[in-house]
Amino acid sequence: MKNYHWILLFTLTVSVLACKADKKENTSEENVEVVQEENSTEIIGNEISYQASDSIMLNGYISRNTATSGKRPGIIVVHEWWGHDEFARQKADELAEMGYVALAVDMYGNGKQAEHPEEAMAFSSNVMKNFDTAKKRFMAAMETLKADENVDAEKISAIGFCFGGSVALSMANSGADLDGVAVFHSGLGLPVMPNEDLKAKLLIQNGAEDMMITDEQEKTFKSQLDAINADYEYIAYEGVMHSFTNKDADSLGEKFDLPLAYDKEITEKSWEKMTLFFKDLYSE
């Protein structure tokens, strides 16, 4: 049975808690990162700045694979509640290895990052409470990705982890023109719940023991998807807790007294599930 003390504490911020990774330093003066693969292909990552209508500078990271030619699908990566960080960039690089162009976005602006759960909660809550601004920032990232010369602007999807999952699902529910959305340990009490504006195919992968999600939230979320005949798959991994994809989850849980736990097996299984999801979505 889930511990409802934790649920009540975190539903104030749309039942979203996320994971943290260390900050990443630039590897060159031009803010270009090159990841050399064993097969001699190169993953090229570039820092990129863009703006939404609120004029705040948004600092992202775009990654592509030089071994893949021609225009290809673009995938937006939405960071955890700590802000745009190394974890999001790593996921962008992994998507690039698969042949996509991936943009790790900045939902807070100016590359802002939190150092403590209270600060992260304030940042993430502010985004969700000001959804119009959040959507403008997300759409600015989408237009930036579409404008990349390597991207097929007609093929755009998104992934998100924890807070980022909640953002990605909310954007899809609000009618954003996304082909697919795949999320990991995402909150389900969203500022925009499933409705007829939803166009994207969804893959939601959560832990069955995630203390940040109530049984009622899960039931309501699924029922609303069913009511509109949404194309979705919801997976709840038995015995798995919140933040299962983050290698630092155990230490962070101990440090901040939070119900988090990394699960290597489910991390790999859920990523493979996402891989097949996009492969099916964009198969020729």
TrEMBL record:
UniProt cross-references to InterPro entries, sorted A to Z: AB_hydrolase_fold (IPR029058), Dienelactn_hydro (IPR002925), FrsA_esterase (IPR050261)
Pfam families per UniProt: DLH
PROSITE patterns (UniProt xref): PROKAR_LIPOPROTEIN
Keyword line: Hydrolase
Presence of keyword Protease: no
UniProt GO MF annotations: hydrolase activity
Keyword Hydrolase: yes
Superkingdom of this protein's organism: Bacteria
Ranges of residues in domain Dienelactone hydrolase: 60-280
Protein name stated in the entry: Dienelactone hydrolase
Species the sequence originates in: Psychroflexus gondwanensis ACAM 44
